[in-house]
Amino acid sequence: MAKYVTKDSLAQKLAQDTTLRKKEAIKIIDIIFNEMSDALAEEGLVDITGFGKFVIFDRKARMGINPVTKERMEIPASKLPKFKPSQTLKNKCNRKD
């Protein structure tokens, strides 16, 4: 069965492997993810050695079709986060570690 990781399961594991309480672990995880989100919102880069990079890329405006009315509409340009895995993570996922 595939492992499913959530913020709660991360906090549980962090509390289990350290002297932190689960509430403290959740606070730490929130701080980490808020810092990562803030960096990306400012078009920065999040680089976690051995895991990968999160970068912002610009998606151009494009034409689309409204599925309800079938009329053409312009979808505006937007900025989206993109993840680029590290070679270490790629190797681990392919059991080459």
UniProtKB/TrEMBL annotation:
<dbReference type="InterPro" id="IPR000119">
    <property type="entry name" value="Hist_DNA-bd"/>
</dbReference>
<keyword id="KW-0226">DNA condensation</keyword>
<protein>
    <submittedName>
        <fullName>Diphthine synthase</fullName>
    </submittedName>
</protein>
<comment type="similarity">
    <text>Belongs to the bacterial histone-like protein family.</text>
</comment>
<keyword id="KW-0238">DNA-binding</keyword>
<dbReference type="InterPro" id="IPR020816">
    <property type="entry name" value="Histone-like_DNA-bd_CS"/>
</dbReference>
<dbReference type="InterPro" id="IPR010992">
    <property type="entry name" value="IHF-like_DNA-bd_dom_sf"/>
</dbReference>
<dbReference type="Pfam" id="PF00216">
    <property type="entry name" value="Bac_DNA_binding"/>
</dbReference>
<dbReference type="GO" id="GO:0003677">
    <property type="term" value="F:DNA binding"/>
</dbReference>
<dbReference type="GO" id="GO:0030527">
    <property type="term" value="F:structural constituent of chromatin"/>
</dbReference>
<feature type="region of interest" description="Disordered">
    <location>
        <begin position="76"/>
        <end position="97"/>
    </location>
</feature>
<dbReference type="GO" id="GO:0030261">
    <property type="term" value="P:chromosome condensation"/>
</dbReference>
